[in-house]
Write a structure and sequence with these properties.
Length: about 280
């Protein structure tokens, strides 16, 4: 059988993290492309560059700073991933999602995941936020699911339920926070593709036809792993560009990072508001 990630490897990495931090975080967050500045709000930060951790999949993409930031945000002890590694960089799905496993072994209960995404829903504008209410596992539906391989029984069941991957109570809190802070929060279905090429206009018309609202290259496999380990998930996309359904415009990584600057303040208020409201 393949070289699948083992519990021993996960626990070794978790122990390395534990030995370098002075808190026991309850909330884990992943910050997507252009959203890294959110981590600057963390108080009394302790930093661990990914490259200093065993087994950690290290990213080389510009805009993904690549370190853990552990500290306090709105009275909660948080562990923030400032940047993530993607499947398109060549790591297998179980290894791309090692960080989520490590969070589970550290005792983290809440998993807040963010990303930059293309707006496939024509009503979405660059700079908008979208609450992820459900996802389409395009990469793994017929192939590389992150749970493929021997099941880690100590973490979760062989066949985990995904009927409610995104936590209803956390979604309700997020809607309330958006209302109180006076910004619009779109909602919809996120599709995870492998990337790294952006979609063709035909890809995008197909995705729209099957009910997709936003498209990206992450998140879905992380959420599956988080749910396997019973973490409660909140997912939010920052819409960085309008999907180009008719081929009239082009999409660039630079515009994705640029939109992050508009999205960050809203994402910060949303995350802070939700942190304040979890018991
Ligand atoms: N497509 C895929 N991934 C993305 C996009 C997009 O248009 N924008 C940001 N991430």
């Amino acid at each position: 059988m393949g070289n699948f990630l083992t519990l021993k490897e996960i626990d070794q990495t978790a122990e390395e993290v534990r030995s370098r931090i002075s808190r026991k975080p309850r909330v884990g967050m992943i910050l997507g492309s252009g959203l890294g500045p959110l981590a600057d709000r963390v108080k009394n930060p302790e930093y661990i560059p990914y490259g200093e951790l065993s087994h950690w999949p290290v990213s080389s993409v510009v805009g993904h700073e690549g370190r853990l930031v552990v500290g306090e945000l709105e009275g909660q002890d948080v562990l923030v991933m400032q940047g993530r590694t993607h499947y398109y960089e060549g790591h297998e799905m179980d290894r791309v999602t090692l960080p989520v496993r490590v969070m589970q072994r550290l005792g983290i209960e809440y998993f807040f995941v963010t990303n930059a995404a293309g707006g496939v829903n024509p009503e979405f504008e660059p700079g908008d936020l979208m609450l992820i209410t459900d996802h389409l596992n395009f990469v793994g539906m017929a192939g590389p699911n992150p749970l493929r391989g021997p099941n880690l029984d100590e973490i979760g069941p062989r066949f985990p339920d995904m009927s409610q991957a995104y936590d209803l109570e956390l979604m309700a809190i997020a809607r309330q926070v958006a209302k109180e802070n006076d910004f619009h929060l779109n909602e919809g279905v996120y599709v995870g593709l492998a990337g790294p090429s952006f979609e063709t206009p035909a890809d995008l018309r197909f995705l729209r036809a099957i009910g997709v609202d936003a498209v990206g290259m992450s998140t879905v496999h992380e959420v599956i792993v988080a749910r396997h380990g019973s973490m409660r998930v909140l997912g939010v996309s920052g819409i960085s560009n309008k999907a180009n359904l008719d081929g009239s415009t082009i999409t660039t990584h630079e515009e994705v990072l640029e939109a992050g600057r508009v999205i960050v303040p809203k994402m910060v208020s949303l995350m802070r508001g939700v942190l304040k409201n979890i018991s």
